[in-house]
Design brief:
Chain A is mostly beta strands and about 120 residues long. Chain A is built from no helices and eleven strands. Chain B is an all-beta fold and about 120 residues long. Chain B has no helices and twelve strands.
């Protein structure tokens, strides 16, 4: 069974440009989460989808970030326009756990560098 | 406010020695606690969790963690470290304010270095 896959693994862009990160969760996992780790600090929650619906987007930093999960399968996270402080590693995670106990399956992350 | 603290940026141990990676938490009520590990160039991987029951929780790869409510701690332990245990370890607690979801609050991570 394939795990959570993320693309690209590393993206280097200039300030003001746009980047779209993609996450393919494990097949059948209704829950999809985006997290971010900036500058070696703690990993912070960005948002949570249940199927195609945004359950919680309280962690999204600002309106330059847009997440979608059309059809309830893969998800994209777009940053437009990117700023220097957006640099970090963006993790996607999924789970099937209907009790949502917090046992998540993570992808390898997409490292974003904004110059 | 809910939070998780990992007081050590790095822990160094010799192979074969016991290891402890520390974690303390701040959350009201009974916490759901987790340890995740990130090996180089890999995603985070679930190690173990505490929800209720026995305070000593056993997980993958011979790791265990002890829930201590009075000290609000959930330290990760292993009796005999392996070089292959070298990785980045994250402690996390489920965000109780979000209701019944998998939204986690993570600590800043501790790098474990096991030397031969």
């Amino acid at each position: 069974e394939a795990g959570v896959t993320q693309f690209p693994s590393h993206s280097v862009i200039e300030k003001g440009q746009t980047v779209t990160l993609r996450c393919d969760p494990i097949s059948g996992h209704d829950n999809l989460y985006w997290y971010r780790r900036v500058m070696g600090k703690e990993i912070k929650f960005l948002l949570h989808f249940v199927k195609e619906s945004k359950q919680d987007e309280s962690g999204m930093p600002n309106n330059r970030f847009l997440a979608e999960r059309t059809g309830g399968t893969y998800s994209t996270l777009k940053v437009q326009p990117a700023e220097l402080e957006d640099s970090g590693v963006y993790f996607c995670a999924s789970s099937f756990d209907r009790r949502n106990t917090g046992e998540l399956f993570f992808g390898e992350g997409s490292r974003l560098t904004v110059l | 406010a809910q939070s998780v603290a990992q007081p050590e940026d790095q822990v160094n141990v010799a192979e074969g020695n016991p290891l402890t990676v520390k974690c303390t938490y701040s959350v009201s009520g009974n916490p759901y606690l987790f340890w995740y590990v990130q090996y180089p160039n890999r995603g985070l991987q679930f190690l173990l969790k505490y929800i209720t029951g026995d305070n000593l929780v056993k997980g993958s790869y011979g790791f265990e963690a002890e829930f201590n409510k009075s000290q609000t701690s959930f330290h990760l332990k292993k009796p005999s470290a392996l070089v292959s245990d070298s990785a980045l370890y994250f402690c996390a607690v489920r965000d109780k304010g979000s209701g019944n979801t998998g939204k986690l609050i993570f600590g800043q991570g501790t790098t474990l270095q096991v030397k031969p």
